[in-house]
Amino acid sequence: MKRDELIKLVKNMTLYEKVSQLLQITADFYSEYAEERTGPLSDMGITEDDLYGVGSVLGISGASESIRIQKEYLKKNRLKIPLLFMADIIHGYRTIFPIPLALGCTWDTNSIEEMARISAKEAAVSGIHVTFSPMVDLVHDPRWGRVMESTGEDPLLNSVLSKAFVRGYQSDNLKDNIYSIASCVKHFAAYGAVSGGRDYNSVDLSELKLREQYLSGYSSAIQEGAKLVMTSFNTVNGIPSTGNKWLLKKILREDLKFNGTIISDWGAVKELIPHGVAASKRDAAKLAINAGVDIEMMTTCYKENLEKLIKEGEIEESLVDESVLRILELKNDLGLFENPNRGANEDLEKNIVLSKQHRDIAKKISQQSIVLLKNESVLPLSSKELVAVIGPGAHSLDILGAWSWKGKSNEAVSLVEGMKKISDRLLITKFNQSYFELSDEELNESLSLAKKADKVVLALGEESWMSGEAASRSNICLPPAQVELFNKIKEVNPNIIVTLYNGRPLDLNSIGEAKGIVEAWFPGTEGGNALAEILFGIYNPSGKLSMSFPDSVGQVPIYYNCENTGRPYEVNPQEKYVSKYLDISNYAKYPFGYGLSYCKFTYSNLRINNPVLKSNEKVIVSVDVCNESSRCGVEIVQLYIRDKVGEVVRPIKELKDFKKIYLEKWENRTVSFELNEQMLRYVHSDMTYSSDEGEFVVMVGSNSQDYLEIEFLLDK
């Protein structure tokens, strides 16, 4: 349909029909069994008739079910406006990929795009139109459970990966490509800065910091064409996002140029009441519609109050008209008026979902996301070595993560399964050990196996419920039972390689004496195969951390690009009167950008072709990277900048570019980066965006703490 036809359609709608389009409810309201609808309908005060005016549905899955619901809906909808089906496709539909924090560790836009494209294809043939992804909340505090949904702590990395997510989901032609789905970027805004790392908590952030660090991920997704934005649960400048007119209309609509659909998070409109900015559902509806929220998810403040507010002259009907038009435009962008069932197809669903091709790609991406944190000459394993495989993660199929909505753990591959495909020299625990308890029998068996083995693979970590939404933790250490197991095994065999399944950076000091540590995150359906091939050196690890691991939970929030102080730690860490702790360093245990390989990469000869950068020109920064080993491998070369003097205090370093390179054994290669004036711009105190003349430091290396550096001058 053309835009003028959509406008005409809005004019033909009754006020009741328009308000109904602004409501989103869950799939259980449309159960084919009438008795199953009774509870949800009465709980929300919705009638059977109301169901056939609702604009969108959350959590539908399966082609046959979506086709049935759409058909039933269109029979009873006066104007034949199709339903939108939305869902949380966060890192895979049925073929589950690594959690987003792990995907960030790939530093690979092609892999992220491929993951999103496969997720979209599986979701689309299963009847879904919209995914609530990517989550681009910048994160600094690993206590917050939702760090698992983010791609990390850096604005640039988050930005380039957010674009890749959107490209993969939406493709080049959303309307005609039935294997694509619309992307909803979330959570707007700054949800990752919640106080104390506690979910749903408040955010206290300056506008400068908001613009400088937190907006870039959303902005990039919007530039790439994301069709929806979801509001966040937190406050910004003391006002909850869902009722924040400045945030949604000034920042999102005007500054970021977003013209798509804004949807609340689950229940967030009604939650304006406990936030204390609305006294009633009527107040909440008025605040949210004035702020520009188009779709209310799973509460009925709009349904119960918008018509009355309009009739009593408290809000303009044009606000509702604008929201309805945006919703209809989204449906039109998806081609639903011409094809209400779009990509839903039971035959394609059987052939595409969880196909071997998709599983193979999931394994490849999982391998790219796994980070080798420590290796004291114990990895890779040899198939000739006798290896004990013990610990709660050995047989675990709980490796999909908390947001694997349609993923099935019984379709996942365990670490033991993966290792058995490679070696028959394994001593495998017979127990499915608990992450939290260790029986005497389990301990005795583990010690017996460890004594016989050349090396021990000790599989530790978190269960999936321990991270994700509503899963904040004050203590991010491994559970005591796992520490006890580690310490007991160390006494009989010090050659321990710890593998970790988890959804956040952890405090790993309790296993600091491990000879090897492999961070596998929640690696998805093919996780066991991917991890096993890394352990045996079939795949050479290349992942680099997208979020810092603290040396102690007392350091958090911890991140590499902190601002300088008047008494900087770096000048003299031994001096007392500098910004530091008395009992620990300021540095992360494993910093942003860190990750080892089975190769030894060395950096040398950092140079710049011109020490003075002029506006409208560029300079070339080059470094030699050598693979000083007898095997090939991948290295992620990272470039950071420091602005030595700014109008406001600047970070001690900022990632500005990176390149993922493949090096043959013993190969030496020159890696070059282009620098221009635009890369040196930042947000000033008056909220303008520009660069300052003066001295800069450019740093190039393997991570945010190990690098070479050289200075240059910006002369505008």
UniProtKB/TrEMBL annotation:
<keyword id="KW-0378">Hydrolase</keyword>
<dbReference type="InterPro" id="IPR036962">
    <property type="entry name" value="Glyco_hydro_3_N_sf"/>
</dbReference>
<dbReference type="InterPro" id="IPR051915">
    <property type="entry name" value="Cellulose_Degrad_GH3"/>
</dbReference>
<comment type="similarity">
    <text>Belongs to the glycosyl hydrolase 3 family.</text>
</comment>
<dbReference type="Pfam" id="PF14310">
    <property type="entry name" value="Fn3-like"/>
</dbReference>
<dbReference type="Pfam" id="PF01915">
    <property type="entry name" value="Glyco_hydro_3_C"/>
</dbReference>
<dbReference type="InterPro" id="IPR002772">
    <property type="entry name" value="Glyco_hydro_3_C"/>
</dbReference>
<dbReference type="Pfam" id="PF00933">
    <property type="entry name" value="Glyco_hydro_3"/>
</dbReference>
<protein>
    <recommendedName>
        <fullName>beta-glucosidase</fullName>
        <ecNumber>3.2.1.21</ecNumber>
    </recommendedName>
</protein>
<dbReference type="InterPro" id="IPR026891">
    <property type="entry name" value="Fn3-like"/>
</dbReference>
<dbReference type="GO" id="GO:0009251">
    <property type="term" value="P:glucan catabolic process"/>
</dbReference>
<dbReference type="InterPro" id="IPR019800">
    <property type="entry name" value="Glyco_hydro_3_AS"/>
</dbReference>
<dbReference type="InterPro" id="IPR013783">
    <property type="entry name" value="Ig-like_fold"/>
</dbReference>
<feature type="domain" description="Fibronectin type III-like">
    <location>
        <begin position="635"/>
        <end position="704"/>
    </location>
</feature>
<dbReference type="InterPro" id="IPR036881">
    <property type="entry name" value="Glyco_hydro_3_C_sf"/>
</dbReference>
<keyword id="KW-0732">Signal</keyword>
<dbReference type="InterPro" id="IPR017853">
    <property type="entry name" value="GH"/>
</dbReference>
<dbReference type="GO" id="GO:0008422">
    <property type="term" value="F:beta-glucosidase activity"/>
</dbReference>
<keyword id="KW-0326">Glycosidase</keyword>
<dbReference type="InterPro" id="IPR001764">
    <property type="entry name" value="Glyco_hydro_3_N"/>
</dbReference>
